[in-house]
Design goal:
Radius of gyration: 32 Å
Shape: globular
Distance between the termini: 71 Å
Order of helices and strands: HHEEHEEEHEEHEEEHHHHEHEEHEEHEE
Largest sheet: 5 strands, antiparallel
Strand order of the largest sheet: 2-1-5-4-3
Structural class: alpha+beta
Number of strands: 17
Number of helices: 12
Helix content: 40-55%
């Protein structure tokens, strides 16, 4: 009987230990690879942020070269200019000017890059895009065996395209260190199987470790598999992500690595605790198992729940640590640090989006001003004529009074146009406000109607009477109406009707803007909302109107779409009845 009881206890403890270790390993591994997935997303966001920064820097420099042409050919002047940029906060690593054929005319880069003057850039997939006037920013091999995030922008001298500016941010050890600091995961960049950058020093790897890492990232199924390697004598979980350039070619492999030492240590500690508990008997083993489950699986469950919330987009979710100072507490703290960093990045992206919206608004104001100047000219001429007739004193008092009345009426017309433009150009506030969608549409129509493009255009506005107030940024929604109505008027060179209609759905307001123009060709429908894409001749459009309208509607929780139509073009968008909370 004793032997039987002992056998049952041993069997129960053995099964419990095996099951416990299986669950422990599975949960730790799942947790590690979810951290790796979050690290991969952080890398994607970081590269996207650098692409945007490179575009802004290239555009800024192209403008400066137009004012200082010597920068286009003098390498020393360009290098000094790059130093001034860095002192001002622009952190580009290399800067080059190219002629119209893509050959480098001047180059400023770190000493290890060498002299690149005269080297053609036609192999760079971004150069043909820049030459075609398209978006030209992304990942590229900017120097031999050096992977960069770069942007190419045309610069103009005396109104004619004279060359291009090439700005690059090297994906180096400093970049890998930023990823490590932001996510807690290590980042390794390999090109042709050789280390290009990393938060783990490639010099600290043994020959066997380097070969194993190169084999893991270059394996045929590397993108769909997970590896466990030793790097620098320490165990890591590894996930490989391909890094592609603008042409879709793989230029490097990225390895997101999460250290496994703490997990292995936690596994060993759990096994030791279970081995000690087995000597105390089944009752003590069960009690210890319950205690361990409470101390480990509870926090792990909360952490897993938080990870799922973050993966669904709730970057403000935080894992509770309960003041723990063990590995779980450290893991929770590291995860919270990562989510705070991601939230900061998301906030920065939102701020930059707001800046882009305001820039688009000012660009639209500039375009409107050109048309408004024509409309203001007529009343100014009338005012001048009436004033001259009054000065001649050759008319009766009644006629003088009529002249003065006409002057006042024309002046009121000018004041109304200028007032509408100034009101529209002011930045939006941060808080959502209740607004009448009909009034916003009418204000937009009043503002744009002074433009010369509306000389032979009739605007018909029809809204359902039961549409309630909506929570929104009123000036931004007014800008959407202005951009769509202006776009419709410019599409109808010979004049026609623009119909703006609003209807009420169960949970949102549906708006459509329809014109009688030639419509949008099928081959450009996928590009119509891209920034700086335009089919209008130079000086007529900025290429930002539809892109800004799309961003504003998306920011308010709606969606702007181009609908199919038998004739003309129809843009429709929806806004929720309750604010998006943006």
């Amino acid at each position: 009987m004793v032997a039987a009881i002992v056998s049952i206890v041993v069997l129960a403890l053995g099964c419990s230990t095996a099951a416990w270790m299986y669950l422990l390993k599975r949960n730790f591994s799942q947790m590690a690879f979810e951290e790796i997935a979050a690290g991969g997303e952080a890398v994607r966001l970081k590269i996207a942020e650098r692409v945007g920064r490179a575009e802004l820097t290239a555009r800024f420099i192209a403008r400066d070269i137009g004012a200082s042409p010597e920068l286009a050919s003098d390498a020393d002047a360009l290098a000094a200019y790059l130093k001034r940029l860095k002192a001002a906060g622009f952190d580009a690593d290399l800067l080059a000017t190219l002629d119209l054929d893509g050959a480098a005319t001047a180059h400023a880069a770190p000493d290890w890059a060498g002299d690149m003057t005269g080297e053609p850039a036609f192999l760079d997939p971004l150069f043909p895009s820049a030459a075609a006037g398209k978006r030209s920013a992304g990942v590229a091999v900017c120097l031999p065996e050096v992977v960069c995030v770069e942007a190419i922008e045309a610069f103009y001298l005396n109104g004619a395209k004279a060359g291009y500016v090439r700005v690059g941010h090297v994906l180096d050890d400093a970049f890998a260190g930023e990823i490590k600091l932001a996510t807690g995961t290590d980042y390794l960049l390999l090109r042709r199987g050789r280390g290009a950058a990393g938060s783990i020093s490639f010099g600290a790897l043994t020959t066997e470790e380097s070969a194993a890492l190169a084999g893991a990232v270059s394996a045929p199924d590397a993108q769909n598999s997970r590896s466990r390697l030793r790097l620098g004598g320490k165990p890591y979980f590894i996930k490989t992500i391909e890094l592609k350039d603008a042409a879709g070619r793989v230029v490097a492999e990225q390895a997101i690595a999460r250290g496994a030492s703490d997990i292995q240590r936690a596994e060993r500690e759990a096994l030791a605790a279970l081995a000690a508990a087995s000597m105390l008997g089944l009752a003590l083993a069960l009690a210890l198992g319950l205690l361990t489950a409470k101390r480990i699986f509870g926090p792990l469950g909360e952490l897993m729940k938080t990870v799922r919330e973050v993966s669904e987009g709730r970057l403000d979710a935080r894992a509770p640590d309960g003041g723990r100072e063990d590995e779980i507490g450290e893991l929770s703290g590291a995860f919270n640090d990562m989510t705070r960093s991601l939230l900061d990045r998301a906030g920065e992206l939102e701020r930059r989006q707001a800046q882009l919206i305001q820039s688009g608004k000012l660009a639209a104001i500039g375009e409107l001003a050109a048309g408004v100047a024509h409309e203001i000219g007529n009343p100014l001429s009338a005012i001048s004529g009436y004033a001259q007739m009054i000065q001649e004193n050759a008319h009766s008092r009644e006629e003088h009074l009529r002249f003065a009345s006409e002057i006042e009426r024309e002046a009121d017309f000018i004041v109304r146009i200028i007032s509408d433009l100034l009101e529209f150009s002011r930045p939006s506030g941060d808080e959502l406000k209740p607004a009448d969608i009909r009034e916003l549409c009418d204000a937009a129509i009043r503002t744009v109607s002074a433009h010369k493009a509306f000389t032979r255009v009739e605007i018909i506005s029809k809204f359902a009477p039961d549409i309630p107030l909506i929570e929104c940024h009123p000036k931004e929604i007014q800008q959407v109406f202005m951009n769509l109505i202006m776009n419709a008027a410019q599409a109808m060179n010979g004049g026609g009707r623009i119909r703006v209609e609003g209807a009420l759905a169960p949970d949102r307001v549906l708006i459509s803007v329809r014109d009688e123009g030639p419509g949008v060709p099928a081959h450009i429908k996928d590009k119509i909302f891209d920034p700086f894409f335009t089919t209008k001749p130079p000086g007529v459009g900025t290429g930002l109107g539809l892109s800004i309208a799309y961003r504003i509607v998306e920011k308010h929780g709606g969606r702007l779409e181009l609908e199919s139509s038998a004739s003309g073009t129809v843009f429709s968008f929806s806004l929720p009845l309750k604010g998006a909370g943006c």
